[in-house]
Specification:
There is one protein chain. It contains two helices and 28 strands. The protein is mainly beta and 328 residues long. The chain has a domain of 116 residues: Methylamine Dehydrogenase, Chain H, CATH 2.130.10. The strands form seven sheets. The chain has a four-stranded antiparallel beta sheet, with no helix packed on it. The longest helix has 4 residues. It is globular, with a radius of gyration of 25 Å.
Length: 328
Amino acid sequence: MAQNRPKQKEAETPRTRKPAAKQPVPTPEPQVFFSDGVPITSEDVAVSAGFNEEPEAASSRIYLRLANEWIVHEVTDDFIVSLTFRDGVLYGLGRNGLVKTVGRTGVAFTEENVIGKFAAFRLTEAENRGQLARIRFIGVDVYACGWDSQIYRITGRKWEPLNKGINAKADDSLLDIDGTGPDDIYAVGMRGALLHFDGSRWSYLDSPTNSHFYSVKSLSRDDVVLVGADGGLYRGNRREWRFIGDEEITDNFWSVERFASAFYIAAGNNKLLRHSRGKFTEVDFGRPFQPHTYRLGATPERLWSFGSDHVLAFDGRMWEEAVCPDNE
């Protein structure tokens, strides 16, 4: 008995075939998020970044935008949390003690002078004491700070603990460090930690708050700005401090920079506040999106904002985005 065969569909021809519905092209997710940045010139910049797929990985990248070209340096054995630059030399600090450096003092920081020339060494004490948080040029040397009251002075590729006067039992988590020179340095951190170095030893200052400090900016020996949790904004020096913020603002203040006679403060998740003559105004980036904000940097010509997803520069009139190719 013959089996029933399934009916064959009539073959479609180009004339009878229905056009396929257009599928939306997915927008690629950013590959990286930014942890810090530092201006090289008014046009050039260095940025450190982690990977969105593995945000806790002990690996990262340093991006250099030089003459509108992006250069990538892979860091396979630590997460770079902070960058600092001065006079042709860049340093990057890993949270587990790795230090990356490239460039030479007084030599142009160009693609030719940096590609393939990064050097590395470790602050070995950090392996047992905890994570590091910030690195800064102060004078001709570089200083780093972190958990467990860690403070180091780095000269070239040599380093030393800078702990005279530090109370080992205090166990302060230090988050930022800045100063005008080797005999005038401030370190700040969690629970209002506030220290000053006079060139020979550290002293603990009377803190104006018990809330966390996230950043310190030394404008001169007698003019220092502190920012921190819950809208903390203080100005003064090692002798006295005064609150210059607004009690109604409760956003965390992550960093502060002075540009064109005003203070700019990265606040909350995606705010940039301008503080001038005692008043705050929220900055409009003029973008179709609201950028995240975190760290700030400045040259005389430009203010830079380094958020987790965006790097933007302000020339006093308008904002321009520096779009990293791996984060478009």
